[in-house]
């Protein structure tokens, strides 16, 4: 029996290094338990908030489920007048990964700002939606922009916006509102998969399986550390669809 075990151990040790790695990766994936934040049927667990409206009011029925897809729909809108919208998940988090597959469809609503064309985003470490003022445009948060190409040129996804927040970028405090990260550009209505890893005040953006950027010392404008908060997606005048949104809690 000891001889058989020794032979088996020797055989495993002689496996190619990449096969060892594949086995470890398969084991890791098997252990990960991703939580679907979207059930494909309705908006259970999500609460809308539009500027100018009360928390919970789904203005013009903008956030809907269509053909099993979470959809930001502007078919009931005639024009836009600064009614920025956000859809909040029910639970705040601190250490986690969030991944999603999204695409842009159709045309931007009339009078939408140019910068909001094919523009959505994950608002992470958001303030409690119950504390958002009725006419507030954006929640205090770190926004991971989901951007679509405009048909030509570069317009990389996973840029950063900082409503009411700051962060350390490339080792230094950065107070700019928009930080371009060099993410990949996707034109047309192609589905795009992205992932964001959040560990307290440290963030990592991943698009199409490749790391786009990392940054840390996420904080409020007053310098207070920002290490947890709510998750929201946007309604910023561009029709968008999400095939999936999933979350993986991480140990601190």
SSE topology:
Elements (H helix, E strand, L loop, with lengths): L1 H12 L3 H15 L3 E2 L9 E5 L12 E4 L2 E4 L12 E5 L5 E10 L14 E8 L15 E6 L12 E2 L3 E5 L2 E3 L3 E2 L12 E8 L2 E6 L2 E11 L9 E6 L4 E10 L3
What is the share of helical residues? 10-25%
Strand content: 35-45%
- How many independent structural domains? 2
Structural class comes to: mainly beta
Give, in order, the helices and strands. HHEEEEEEEEEEEEEEEEE
Largest sheet: 10 strands, antiparallel
Q: What's the shape?
A: globular
The unreliable regions are 1-15
CATH superfamily of the largest domain: Exo-inulinase, domain 1
The appropriate CATH architecture of the largest domain is: Sandwich
Number of strands: 17
Q: What is the average per-residue confidence, as pLDDT, rounded to a whole number?
A: 91
Radius of gyration from the alpha-carbon trace, in angstroms: 21 Å
CATH-defined fold name of the largest domain: Jelly Rolls
Highest CATH level, the class of the largest domain: Mainly Beta
So what's the oligomer here? single chain
What's the helix count? 2
């Amino acid at each position: 029996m000891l001889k058989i075990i020794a032979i088996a151990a020797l055989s495993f040790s002689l496996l190619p290094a990449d096969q060892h790695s594949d086995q470890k990766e398969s084991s890791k994936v098997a252990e990960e338990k991703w939580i679907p934040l979207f059930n494909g049927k309705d908006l259970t667990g999500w609460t809308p908030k539009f500027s100018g409206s009360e928390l919970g009011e789904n203005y013009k029925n903008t956030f809907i489920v269509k053909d099993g897809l979470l959809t930001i729909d502007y078919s009931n809108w005639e024009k836009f007048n600064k009614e920025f919208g956000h859809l909040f998940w029910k639970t705040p988090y601190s250490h986690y990964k969030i991944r999603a597959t999204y695409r842009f469809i159709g045309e931007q609503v009339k009078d939408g700002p140019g910068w909001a064309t094919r523009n959505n985003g994950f608002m992470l470490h958001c303030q409690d939606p119950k504390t958002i003022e009725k006419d507030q445009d954006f929640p205090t948060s770190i926004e991971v922009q989901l951007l679509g190409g405009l048909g030509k040129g570069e317009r990389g996804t996973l840029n950063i916006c900082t409503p009411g927040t700051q962060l350390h970028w490339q080792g230094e405090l950065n107070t700019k509102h928009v930080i371009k990260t060099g993410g990949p550009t996707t034109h047309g209505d192609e589905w795009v998969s992205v992932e964001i890893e959040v560990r307290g005040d440290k963030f990592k953006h991943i698009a199409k399986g490749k790391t786009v950027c990392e940054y840390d010392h996420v904080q409020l404008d007053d310098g207070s550390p920002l290490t947890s908060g709510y998750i929201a997606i946007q309604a910023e005048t561009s029709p968008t669809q999400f095939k999936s949104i999933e979350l993986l809690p991480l140990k601190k």
